[in-house]
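Me: I hope this is not a bother. Any chance you could explain this protein sequence and its structure tokens? It all follows right here:
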Amino acid sequence: MSDQTKTICVLGLGYIGLPTASLLGTKGYRVHGVDVSPDVVATINSGGIHIVEPDLDILVKSAVQSGNLTAGLEPVEADIFIIAVPTPFKGDHEPDLSYVEQATKTISQFIKPGNLVILESTSPIGTTDEVVATILQQDGHKVGEDVYVAHCPERVLPGRILIELVQNDRVVGGVDEESTQVAVDFYETFVRGEVLATSAKTAELVKLTENAYRDVNIAFANELSMIAETEEVNAWEVIELANRHPRVNILQPGPGVGGHCIAVDPWFIVSRAPEQAKLIRTAREVNDSKPQWVMAQVRKQADRFKNPVIGCLGLAFKADVDDLRESPALNLVQQLQSEDVGQVLVCEPNLKQHSEFELLPLAEVIKKSDIILLLVDHKPFKKLTATSLNNKVVIDTRGIVK
């Protein structure tokens, strides 16, 4: 059987699993996607999508109509299994690997000699060896001999997932050399970037390092923004001018850090090495505390009004997506609502509705509000100017109002 006719079973049809499954389906693989949600399964089988990502609707529809992509609630036999399930927290920032464990146990009965099992979920160091490979070995599979196990973390940007799945370099690490090579051979069938071979543990730490690096840099920018506010200096101008130095590249401050990657992954390093990861922990604490600093700014301005109307622009964790995971913007709006600081109006152009808030058009929010709290730098918000917001108190956490 050639690579182009092999079958693939993808577990988890979220922001990574669905784009990956649909892309592989259009590359000629026969793909069966698995999700715990009957609604998600039904939506995909009808050729639709349940998440917002540019061009994903076209890709899914094409893969489904070709017969190369199907979805179900249970796995099926396949040549390659890709685990793309969540790895959230439990308790005090401890990684919850129960989804990975359950996914591995679920596919174990369908695995046969020659199969490749890939963990794509961002995971703490050791997960591929100590969880996935161990469970399969306990179930009687000969890992490294006739079943191959590897880790290949996704490294894509929401809004550019379909482009970056193909173009970005990928880091692939197996639990042994043979597993590494089998996994590398698979990714080279559809990745145009370089596929870099290493060990499973190294691949796990590489992904965590990428996001911890950015988290530390953003924490530095967030500290600068708070210092600049105290000194009545524009933080974004400071960063722009400092970045003119040839060896300085400071990222942008914001109301905090969200998303399932940067806000979560550094804690996986801290959990594994609490005595060594002092800087990484401190950066996480700085970024987690930033929303409270923004809240203090809002309260200060709200005290100037008898019954303030606060217009909140954006709920997503980053620009031009509908993803609310770990979103500091959503957290802030919820806190404003619960503390009754004032009447809260919300505009989120990437969502049709939200269970907690009525979503209003941008023009209506601006017209009715005394205070504009700009939380996300969505494209429609970038058109706002000081003139268009005349007579409004503006708290711009993204530095986009000219």
